[in-house]
């Protein structure tokens, strides 16, 4: 059973500037939760708080019923994996070395690198179609290639809970779908809890079991995509007039923006 990750009355900010105030969120174990919202709504800040990268000014984030701040970092890293929006890697690092770093939380005095680690790294690279990049330096890759390598590292970490901030950044539409399908497969086959921030509302609705809509540091809707992605909520959260119609592929709600020049017929 995946450990429960929960934000309880959490307030988060930067340099004494509040971004999120008294927010509550329980991440549903074994589900895909997608966080959406306009720019500066607090999505990435919330993800950092859940991952223990940002210390709450008030409240707490708990993992398995314990304050995540009180848990050993390596222990947290074996359970919770994070792909931030702008990850940083050492200069000159190769793709294989970077993906292999996903296995570091699983090493210790009595658990050294093994053939199993090699197999997990190879599987993560195969799943993200990065195997042919193995010996290349990260800085020599395109933005899309680098993003797929970072996703491979997150998969190699093999956490129970995977947090991803805009995992489709820099990817063309084909690779966006491939990555989201991969995360869905990981969730369905292995029960990995996935929490990700997405900008594309239609992809969010298609892939989410649970949708969280944010505005100005608060959650304004939280539930099934069909319940949370309504014309009223889109108007409130994004200041956008839109029609909500069924996705012709899967039946999920699909947002069709109206705009100023196309009428409302």
UniProtKB/TrEMBL annotation:
One of its GO terms (cellular component) is plasma membrane. It comes from the Bacteria. Pfam families: ABC_tran. Residues 5-241 form the ABC transporter domain. It is a peripheral membrane protein. CDD domains: ABC_Iron-Siderophores_B12_Hemin. GO terms for biological process: iron ion transport. This is ABC transporter ATP-binding protein. It comes from Cryobacterium suzukii.
